[in-house]
Amino acid sequence: MAAEAGADRPIRIALLSYKGNPFCGGQGVYVRHLSRELVALGHRVEVLGAQPYPELDPGVGLHKVPSLDLYRQPDPFRTPGRKEYRDWIDVLEVATMWTGGFPEPLTFSLRARRELAARRHEFDVVHDNQTLGYGLLGLDGGRLGLPLVTTIHHPITVDRRLELAAAERRSRRYAVRRWYGFTRMQGRVARRLPTVLTVSGSSRREIVEDFAVPAERVSVVPIGADTRVFRPDPATPRVPGRIITTSSADAPLKGLVFLVEALAKLRTERPGTHLVVVGNRPESGPVRDALERFGLGGAVEFVKGVSDAELATLVRGAQVACVPSLYEGFCLPAAEAMAAGTPLVATTGGAIPEVTGPDGETCLAVPPGDAGALAEALGRLLDDEPLRERLAAAAMERVLARFTWEHTARATVAHYRAAIAAGRRSGRRRRP
Predict the structure, then answer these.
(1) Alpha-carbon 393 to chain mean position
(2) Of 185, 296, 300, 430, most Cβ neighbours within 10 A?
(3) Per-residue pLDDT, 2
(4) Cα 192 from chain centroid?
(5) Angle between helices 26-40 and 405-425 (to 10 degrees)
């Protein structure tokens, strides 16, 4: 990108996140680590976030933009009391939930726009983290004149397709279509955005195809592992026969059911093989049914709510890490396992090969949705210590060279400066 006057000037960044807690998924991880590295580079970052509020490092500001928190535990899909309603956006939020939709991307974008309108001279650029709500429209080219950069990790239309494919009953398919109704809004908004960042070439192709965003507007900025935490530690012993995965049992695209089936196959010849799943134990659904069918209740442990340091220790303590996903827009669990020095078996779903590299060099790769191939690759790694050591060393070198949060932050800043410069050239706004 071309250099500009004041290219080294600190940038005042408003980072939007409608669901920012790192335990809610990759969006929260992105907000925490990117904001920390941006501050380390000398920029000022204020996160505008809704519940569950993000966990942020020192130096990063948080401005709470509260929703009605309709999905909080232990009372999800709750009906608010009359005194909780503050304005028409709250009414819209509840009405959308009552009719089976997911309101948060739209309602958060409307609330965030209101906040930004009141404070438009306090920021140089707005960075939206996959909200893609109607409230974003006009921030860049309209009255507010705030340069806008948006990250789309992957189009949620991918999740929609996979959940529809897994839905056996007509009523379930109707509920999935209604819940994912917000993706139509996200596509309309994405097509009008000036600068779209995504985390992989695979996600870029999906954004262009599913959202019909012109390819020249979409740039790839890979994310990375926190290599301060995810790194080898010789003091952590490997537990024989242990496989670890980070996976949601409720999301079909994570492919956990295939890993459970692979574990059952492995245990016929290696009875000590067991699995640690970083995620919630399912109360119903295909994964729970598979655990019962194969009698694996005692061979699979579910762990939730762990810190980054605790997760890194779990990853280092396993003989093998596994990513069984049908699709990933990037795949942080793969990058974290590679950084921690734990040998990896991963599918070729979505962008995973962009992270792991060629089969046999840094990991063993298998087709998504193939439990037999997963079992074969896992068994091969469990039985071959020299292979584990060779793959782990090459994987760690790949992550350090390509996939760290500092790399992500520096590349993102370049896009901020380009967006700010474009705004000045068009005369939309000048810094006061």
Answers:
(1) 26
(2) 300
(3) 38
(4) 23
(5) 80
Q: 110-114, 136-140, 250-254, 417-421: which range is least confident on average? A: 250-254
Token couple for 219: 């740039």
Q: In this model, does residue 432 exceed pLDDT 50?
A: no
Listed residue (151, 129, 127) closest to 139, CA to CA: 127
**pLDDT tens digits for 126-160?**
999 999 999 999 887 667 889 999 999 999 999 89
pLDDT above 80 for 6: no
pLDDT at residue 22 in the model: 64
Question: How many other C-beta atoms lie within 10 A of the C-beta of residue 379?
Answer: 18
Q: How many CB atoms lie within 10 A of CB 376?
A: 16
Question: 42: burial class by Cβ within 10 Å (0-12, 13-18, 19+)?
Answer: exposed
**156 CB-side CA count, 13 A:** 20
What spatial distance separates the first Cα and last Cα of the chain, rounded to whole Å?
25
List Cβ<8 Å contacts ≥24 apart for 217-222.
217/193, 219/195, 219/415, 221/151, 221/197, 221/408, 221/411, 221/412, 221/415, 222/330, 222/354, 222/355, 222/402, 222/403, 222/407, 222/408
DSSP, collapsed to helix, strand or coil, labels residue 148 as strand
Judge if pTM exceeds 0.85: yes
Report the distance separating Cα 239 and Cα 314, nearest Å: 10
Residue 242's SS3 state is strand
Query: Do residues 407 and 223 lie in contact, with contact meaning Cβ atoms separated by under 8 Å?
Result: no
* 3-class state of residue 29 by DSSP: helix
Cα dist from 357 to 127, 222, 327, 362, 397, whole Å = 29, 14, 16, 6, 11
What are the pLDDT digits (tens) for 372-407? 999 999 999 999 999 999 999 999 999 999 999 999
Sorted by where each starts, the structural domains of the chain and their CATH numbers stand as 12-224+405-425 (3.40.50.2000), 239-402 (3.40.50.2000)
Q: And the tokens for 106? A: 């739209």
Spatial neighbors of 415 by CB under 8 A, at least 6 apart, are 1, 149, 195, 197, 219, 221
How far apart CA 70 and CA 148 sit, in angstroms, is 28
pLDDT-based confidence at 37, cuts 50/70/90? very high
